[in-house]
User: What shape does this take?
Amino acid sequence: MMEALDIFTTASLWDAVLRIATPLIFGTLGALICERSGVLNLGIEGILTLGAMVAWMTVYQGGDLWTGLAVAAFCGGMFGLLHAFLTVPLGLSQHVTGLGITLFASSLTYFVYRLSLPVSSSPPTIEPFQPLAIPGLSDIPFLGEALFSQTAPTYLAILAAAITAWVLAKTPLGLAVRMTGENPHAVEAQGLNPIRIRIGAIVVGSALMALGGAFLTTATFNSFFPTMVQGRGWVCIALVVFASWQPGKALLGALLFALFDAYQLRLQHVVEGGVPYQLFLMVPYVLSIVALIVMSRRARVPNALMAPYRRGER
Amino acid sequence: MRLERRTETPLALALSAPLIAVAIALALSGVLIAIAGANPLQAYYEMLKGAFGSRLSISETLTRTTPLVLTGLAAAVAFRSRLWNIGGEGQFYVGALCAAWLGHSIAAVLPPVLAIPVMMIAGMIAGALLLLGPVILRIRFGVDEVVTTLLLNFIVLLFVSMMIEGPLKDPLAFGWPQSVAVSNDVMLPKLLSRSRLHIGLLIAIAAAIIIYVVQSRTVFGVKSRAAGLNAAAASFAGVSLGSTLLVVACISGALAGLAGAIEVTGLKGYVTLDLSPGYGYSGIVVAMLAGLNPLGVVATALFVAIVFVGADSMSRAMGVPSFIADVIVSISLLTMLVCLLFTTYRVRR
Assistant: This one.
C-alpha cells in the first residue's frame, strides 16, 4: 500500500506526466478551437497519425527536428482544410466526414510510410528532442527534475494553451470564433464571414493536432509504427467536453489524465498477485468515458456545434 | 454560387451516386499507384483478377464479403436513426469471443443443431449489450455516443487480449495469445467444398433482406426512420424516441456481434487480436456507400471485399503497398458523401 503511494513522491512520475500530457494538450486544444467555431473534427485520430509519420519522416530524411514539426503542422492544416471544405461550405455530416478524414489520413500515412521504407522487423530510428533544462529552475531539488527538464515541444504545448486561452477570451478574432460557434447568423449580421472563420479555425486546430502526433515520434519515441496513436485522438475529443470547451481547463484535464496514465504504468510494477496488465491499460479509456458522463450535463456546449451554416437557410 | 435543396431526388441520380463516387475514388487512388511506380490501369486489372480470377479467389472474396455485409448493416441500421454507432469493431470482438467460448464449452453438451444457434444468439446478445451502454448514456445524460463507442473499441480489445492470455487461453497454442478453439463439429457448414466459404454468407444476405422488409413494411421501420429524420417532429407525432433508439441499438449491436460470431464459427475457429482487419470501421463505409439501404449494403460489401482481396494479390504482383485498399475505401467514403449531397441539393448561381 505504501509503495503505491510512494510513487507520487518520485520525480520521474511528474516528469512523465508532462511528457504524456503533451500530445493530449496539443490535440485537445486543436479539437477545442474547431469546436468553438462550431465544427466537430473527428479527423483528429487520423491527423495525429499523419503528424507522427510526417514529422518522423522529415527528420529521417535529414531535416531538423523543428522542420519536422513545421512540416507536420502544415500537413495537418491541409487535412483540416479538406475537413473544412466538406463540412463548412458543403455542410456534410461532421460525424461521418470526420471519420472519413481519420480513415483517409491514417491509410494514406501507412501507404506513404510503407512506400518510402521497405518492410523491416525493427522500425528505423531518429535522434529525438533532448530534455531542455530551464536554467535556474531546473536546479530546484525535486521540482527541477520533475517539471523543468522537459523537451522543448512540451514547453511549447503549455505556451500554446496560454495563447489559445488569451486569443479566444481577449481578442476580436477570438470573439469572432466564439460567436461563430454560438450563432453564425449574428456573425453574418456583423459583416463577418462565418464560413471563412470556421475554415480558419479548423485549419489552425488541425495543425495543432498534427503537432501532438509529431511529439510522439520526435520526443516520446524515436520511430514511427502503425497504430501508435492508440485512440489518443478520441481521448482528446472527450477531454474537450471534460474541459467545458475552456482552454485552461483543457490543459488541466490533459495533465490530470496524464497523471492517471503515468501512475497506472508505475502501479503495474508495484501491484502483486497477477492482476492482468490489460486492466491497467484500460484505465485511460474508462476515465475518458467517466469524464464524459460527469461533465456532459454541466458542460456549456457551443450552441451551433454541428449545425452546418448555409446562407439564407435556417 | 450556392446550394439549393431539391424538392425530389431523381432516381437515376440516386443510383449513379455510388458509381460516380467509386469512379472518382479509383481515379484519385490511381495517382498514388502511379507514384508508387505502377501503371494504375494494370494495377486495377490485377486487383480484379485477384478478386475474381479463379474459383479460389472468388470464394475468398465472398468469404471476405460476409462480415462486411453484417457490420455494414449494423452501421446502416443505426445511422438511419442518427444513432452514430462507431463501435462495430468492439461489438464484433465481443460477439466473436462469446461464440468461441461457447463453441469450446457447450459442444460436448449440445448437438450441433442447437449449439450453432446458441453461439449465434450469444454473439448477438453480447454485441447488443455492448452498444446499449453508450445509447443509455446518450438518452439519460446526453453523452455523445460517437466518442463512447470509439473508446469502448479500445477497452474491448484490451479485454479480449486479457481473456485470450488468461481464462480463455488455448493451452495448446505454444504460448501464442489465442483463444480456445471452437469444436470442429459445431463449426458452420461449408457452402462450397474445397474452399473457406461458409453458410455465413447466406445468413448475412438473409439478415439484409429481413432488415429491408422491417424498415419498409413495419411500423417500427417508420418510427426508426422518423427518429433519424426529425427527432422533434417524431416525438411530437407520438414516437417514443428513447425506446425506438434502444431497439435500434439492440439490432445494430446484435448485427455486429453476429458478424464476429460467424467469423469465428465459420472461418477462423478461434479468436486472436487480428481476427478483424477493421471490419467494424469498414462497415461504416459499406453503409454510407449503400446510402444506408440494407439491400445496397450487400453490393457495397462485395465492392469493399473486392478491393481488399484484390489489393492483396495486386500488391504481391506489382509491389504497391496493400494499404492502397484502405486508401481507396476511405476516399470512396468521402467522395460518396459529396455525391450524396448533390442528390439532395443542387448548385445555383
About this structure: DSSP finds 13 helices and no strands in chain A. Chain A touches chain B through 46 residues (CB under 8 Å).
